[in-house]
Amino acid sequence: MQEKVKIAVDAMGGDNAPHEIIKGAVEAVKERKEIQVCLIGKRELITHELSQFSYPKDQIRIEHAQEAIETAEPPVLAIRKKKQSSIVIGMNMVKQKEMDAFISAGSSGAVLVGGQVIVGRIKGIERPPLAPLIPTEKGVSLLIDCGANVDARPSHLAQFARIGSIYMKYVVGVKNPKVAIVNIGAEEEKGNALVKETYPLLKECKDINFTGSIEAREIPHGEADVIVCEAFTGNVILKLYEGLSQTLLHVVKKGLLSTLRSKIGALLIKPALKETMKSFDASAYGGAPLLGLTGLVVKIHGSSKAAEVKNAIIQCVTFHEQEINEKIKNNIGNSDKGKE
Amino acid sequence: MQEKVKIAVDAMGGDNAPHEIIKGAVEAVKERKEIQVCLIGKRELITHELSQFSYPKDQIRIEHAQEAIETAEPPVLAIRKKKQSSIVIGMNMVKQKEMDAFISAGSSGAVLVGGQVIVGRIKGIERPPLAPLIPTEKGVSLLIDCGANVDARPSHLAQFARIGSIYMKYVVGVKNPKVAIVNIGAEEEKGNALVKETYPLLKECKDINFTGSIEAREIPHGEADVIVCEAFTGNVILKLYEGLSQTLLHVVKKGLLSTLRSKIGALLIKPALKETMKSFDASAYGGAPLLGLTGLVVKIHGSSKAAEVKNAIIQCVTFHEQEINEKIKNNIGNSDKGKE
Fold first, then answer.
1. First to last CA, chain A
2. Chain A partners of B266 at a C-beta cutoff of 8 Å?
3. Stretch A197-222: mean pLDDT, rounded?
4. Looking at residue A33, what DSSP letter applies?
5. What is the pLDDT, as a whole number, of residue B41?
6. Do you find a cis peptide bond into A151, omega within 30 degrees of 0?
7. How far is A31 from chain B (nearest CA, A)?
8. Mean pLDDT value of segment B25-29
9. Measured between CA atoms, how close is A194 to chain B, in angstroms?
């Protein structure tokens, strides 16, 4: 019998909770027999939502949580005080190895703090980065860090590069992944103080394939597999990706409805266009794992709908099978132990 | 008779120099009678290029420059040593008020350094920012700073906000322009150290309409008229705008050619799509002025073609007529004199 992968899902987090979260969980277990989901949140609410779906009952269970952490709450305080919140309960289940992973669309701050404080870092990992895959012309690239550590130091970025390299190699299957640092010019002497200090550290890293600077213009072309940046820059890149894709599609659609001729054309191209755009939809690639923890924690977008929740749950099976955090621990944690 | 606007153009700078630069200058003078262009560069080369076009001879003259500054050269050294370069000559013409503006597609570093060292800052202006207009769903927004001052301080950003406000009011004609700071969350307590320190300064500014933080996702929707950020972030935004627009169009085009049905549709939508995309083409909005200098210096993209050169030249007429630097001087320079 195939090994079961146990995934705890925060049923209370995100703009579309609990309905879309629960729907996504149902879709995931229907698609993959080896997944067992534990929905964490108000039991009554979840039971009611679940009653609307048919699904294999042995694959979903509920863990009651009487509290929820709101997005606006200061994360450190919230994690400390709200012991009965879905996020704290989920993190504890991962820490206790009761669950293989925890997924939340809730407060980013609380997930980041909870991951570090409750689940805990791998020894030797300085700052666990948040690392989503983003679509490019050639496939996907890993954006690391996209929101966990603002005002990071050069040594953190160098570690992100190594963590990202391991991720792309084992989870995505890219041989000798190309690692580049986001910069405002291609030359080595360009950049801000952080990039200038990080650059030589990356050049020295023997276990990565460092290809130099990457300008933001080249990111969508897929010029690098691992895109290293500090969290502020990474967050700007991720969110501009989202916003600009939406806006351009909106502008294109408006253009298509401007003349009768183009309206007819629009009907003809609709199926092909839809298929193409799907490949460029960031949400199709699941959530962003908080890498370098002793357990698996995945943050998904606050606006996630069922499709994203389902993708993130299924992605956790790969993370679990590939033992991504184990590999980070073995490749980086140990070698950097002395630096802790 | 209408007043002439004298614009010096670096004929040697950029990937497509001198041909596209000269073509753009010819197109500009043919469109606007009040423009007089001075092309700076190797006289023989320019004369040869010009001989391919017909244009009103009295609107274009040549100023010989025997040197050119290359993109890879360290800018401070290049500006100091290459006195006979097109950039240094052009900057000096602006400084001497011989010309009303200088436009270059050459080395960004040299243009930024030359602007400050040769043309000079308005008294009271701490760091002249580079500020291009970017297209949005609602029109255009000003991105300030997009590349001049990496590792800027909070007081610099606060000044960018005020400079940008004046620009949008007088050059673009936006009443009470909305000013926002790029951040990784909407709440005031979010952000990196720079943003957290800048935020209260912006709230205190009485002469701007500060609306708070803007996430990168909202930028293409046109949620703010003036988008304040430090140069590294601004450069990432500007270049991702370019790269992502190109990539998405490329992906859409590929999708359209995937089936026979969509190929027919593509033919029908082509004219409407082209028209729409034109409104979202960053190059249509001319160059980025280096604001807060005692003269007008405009940087255009290294890959600029004739259309962009033409637009930038014509845009200089507006800058000149609106006396943008005069207004910055009167509104900010004087009030901040004591801080110099």
1. 41
2. 265, 269
3. 95
4. T
5. 97
6. no
7. 28
8. 97
9. 9
C-alpha closest to that of B267 among A164, A89, A265 = A265
Give the burial string for B192-212 (b: 16+ CB within 10 Å, else e): bebbbebbebbeeeeebbbbb
- Taking the CA atoms of chain B, what radius of gyration do you get in angstroms? 21
Q: Helices B231-256 and B260-279: crossing angle, nearest 10°?
A: 150
Q: Give dist(CA A299, CA A301) in Å, integer.
A: 7
What residues have CB less than 8 Å from B8, skipping those under 6 apart? Answer: B37, B38, B40, B63, B90, B93, B94, B99, B101, B102, B103
Nearest to A259 among B136, B191, B272 (CB): B272
DSSP structure class, residue B67: B
Cross-chain residue pair B261–A271, CB shorter than 8 Å:
yes
Which residues of B fall within a CB distance of 8 Å from A246? Answer: 220
Q: Smallest CA–CA separation between A29 and chain B, in Å?
A: 32
| Residues above pLDDT 90, as percent of chain B | 72
Q: What is the DSSP letter of B218?
A: G
Q: What ipTM does the predicted assembly reach?
A: 0.90
Three-state SS annotation for A137-193: CCCEEEEECCCCCCCCCHHHHHHHHHHHHHHHHHHHCCCCCEEEEEECCCCCCCCCH
Sheet with B5-10: strands ordered across? B60-64, B35-41, B5-10, B101-104, B296-299, B288-289
DSSP state of B129: P
Provide the pLDDT for residue B54.
96
In chain B, the N- to C-terminal Cα span, in Å, equals 41
Backbone angles phi and psi of A138, in degrees to 5: -95, -10
Q: Are B292 and B129 in contact (CB under 8 A)?
A: yes
Round the average pLDDT of chain B to a whole number and report it: 91
Confidence band, pLDDT 50/70/90 cuts, at residue B187: confident
DSSP B165: H
List, as one string, the DSSP characters of A81-108: H-TTBHHHHHHHHHHTTSSSEEEE-S-H
Q: What's residue A1's pLDDT?
A: 54
Amino acid making up residue B302: G
Question: Inter-chain contact A137–B250, Cβ cutoff 8 Å?
Answer: yes
